[in-house]
Amino acid sequence: xxxxxxxxxxxxxxxxxxxxxxxxxxxxxxxxxxxxxxxxxxxxxxxxxxxxxxxxxxxxxxxxxxxxxxxxxxxxxxxxxxxxxxxxxxxxxxxxxxxxxxxxxxxxxxxxxxxxxxxxxxxxxxxxxxxxxxxxxxxxxxxxxxxxxxxxxxxxxxxxxxxxxxxxxxxxxxxxxxxxxxxxxxxxxxxxxxxxxxx
Length: 199
Hints:
Largest sheet: none
Helix content: over 70%
Structural class: mainly alpha
Strand content: under 5%
Distance between the termini: 14 Å
Shape: globular
Radius of gyration: 16 Å
Order of helices and strands: HHHHHHHHHH
């Protein structure tokens, strides 16, 4: 868990660098202010509660979001800033508890009206802060030794390179293709949660 947390942190740094000029800072602040302490609380909770139930619920949620995103009602649904604060608290807590909640943030930030580079940069900046809170908790509990940090940095460097390499692709694809890719991310997230439960 700490290795993936470090890798996610570094990977999000890469996306923030790539999409810096597209970041919408208002939802970032609204999302992260309650999200960071919630992530720390979730990390503490992780030490006492098995995360398999949460993983199963997230898998169902991700699959449901694919259908919901395609419905006409959801396409008209938009989040406001206060919605982002509530979502940040919920996702922050779950981020502290489970391996990754990346797919969960997809419908949240798209509901705010973000897409393409603006979505990628804003979501990355928000996640960067949440993972920072999670890692601070791991550090305080003594879970971040030298080997763990080095392995996390190595994986994170690969993620950062991928973010930089994918920029031109994201800028060239159309909205419809982008939506399909988002659905694939949600489906992959659900599959990941199922695999985590099985293991």
